[in-house]
Amino acid sequence: MIMIRSLCAAMLIFTAWGLGPQPLAAAAQAGDKQAQASIDGKALFEGTCAGCHGIDGSGGTGPSIRQQAATMGADSIISFLKNGFIGSAMPTYPQFGDARLQAIVDYLESLGREGASLVTGDPAKGKEIYASSGCAKCHIVGGEGGNLGPDLSRIGAERGVAALRDALVQPGANLPLDIALAERAPYTAFVLYHAVTKDGHEITGMRVNEDSFSIQLKDANGKLYSLDKLRLQKLEALPGKSMMPSFKDTLSATQINDLLGYLASLKGAQ
Asked: With bands split at pLDDT 50, 70 and 90, how would you rate the model's confidence at 45?
């Protein structure tokens, strides 16, 4: 009886203070909202996403994701961040929990409402520069061109202007990720390697595939080599190197801007 009276007295006190069961639940909900509001989606994005997708989401080693919130929807993005999907080289973040993942999505939605990076070059002139510079020997646009480098048919939708400019002036410095090798993601594509066989034969080419025992390289002429690592006396990556030439000293600033204008206009079938 004493215990029951004590509990009743405690309930009366809590009710008098406005701390009965319903106010307590409301306070807890308010605390949850306050905690959610305190999560900085921008900081989370910059710490986990910007390294690949760019500080403004417009692309870097990974593709532009500025419009993903609008095209995929918040629930799909959160599911992707938690679970990923087959064929993607992107890591997952289930440890973040729903609140932090939602904060990232909220920030991503804000990026989609902002204007894209300004393109000042003339796309028509840029297309002429693309042709005269021999870009089609290595790159495909609309099903036409070579396959030594990446397909550029949608490059304007997948990379921001800053990333495209970097690729033109220092092509080996910021190579994209290779989603075809997702089992060891993130795995950089188009890395240049130099190999020397035990009989002294030297091969320089881009890595197109690799496992524990072999590596496949493609040279500047498009010839493919499959090399047994145990039969090599030397195998080394060439950081910062690329088969693609830099246009920093061969094109003027105006020509580079025009070429950027053309590349930024390539968004595939609309």
From this structure: confident
